[in-house]
Amino acid sequence: MFVIMDTTIDTHLKDFCRLMQHKGYHNRFVISDASGHVIDDFLRLGLYKYFRLYPPGGAKTKLQLNSYLQHKSQSNYIMMRMEISYDADNGIKINKVTLHQKNLAVARTYRPEINSRLLGAQMMISQFPKPNIIKDWLKGNGVSQVRSPGSR
Questions:
Q1: What is the value of pTM for the model shown?
Q2: Cβ atoms of residues 15 and 62 within 8 Å
């Protein structure tokens, strides 16, 4: 674990990571900022690396967190882009969450008023329709058709 000199940042990072863990966000994240700095790691380690390498200079720091909520294949995934900001007085604030499901080319955007109102990871996934296997089967897609013996 990284040690950050400023205990205020350390406390804010712990609180945010605890919230994200509680909400079910356990995957790797790509953390980036407007300057082009990029870190790819698990959330807690990535944020500690980021704030250690690029400490905030007093102004509000804006970051983007990207992760997959569900990744079944290259053509079927739900990607989450979370825009957050950090300042020493208020800590980390989630400004906007955008979900994109490539398979359906559908995107949804959420703006939680406070961080604790962020939907859990499974709730985010449930915002997108599940494929209907029976309809696909009736259309002749997906599942191979079952034939009785002697039929052609």
A1: 0.77
A2: no
Chain-centroid distance, C-alpha 122 = 11
Task: Tell me the C-alpha distance between 48 and 43, whole Å.
Answer: 9
pLDDT tens track, the chain, 152 positions: 444 457 889 999 999 999 999 999 988 999 999 999 999 999 999 999 999 998 887 678 999 999 988 766 666 788 899 999 999 888 999 999 999 887 777 789 999 999 999 999 888 888 876 666 676 667 766 544 444 455 55
Contact 127, 142 (CB under 8 A): no
Q: Is 41 exposed, middle or buried (0-12, 13-18, 19+ CB in 10 A)?
A: middle
129 CA to centre of own chain: 18
> Closest Cα to residue 62, out of 89, 97, 34?
34
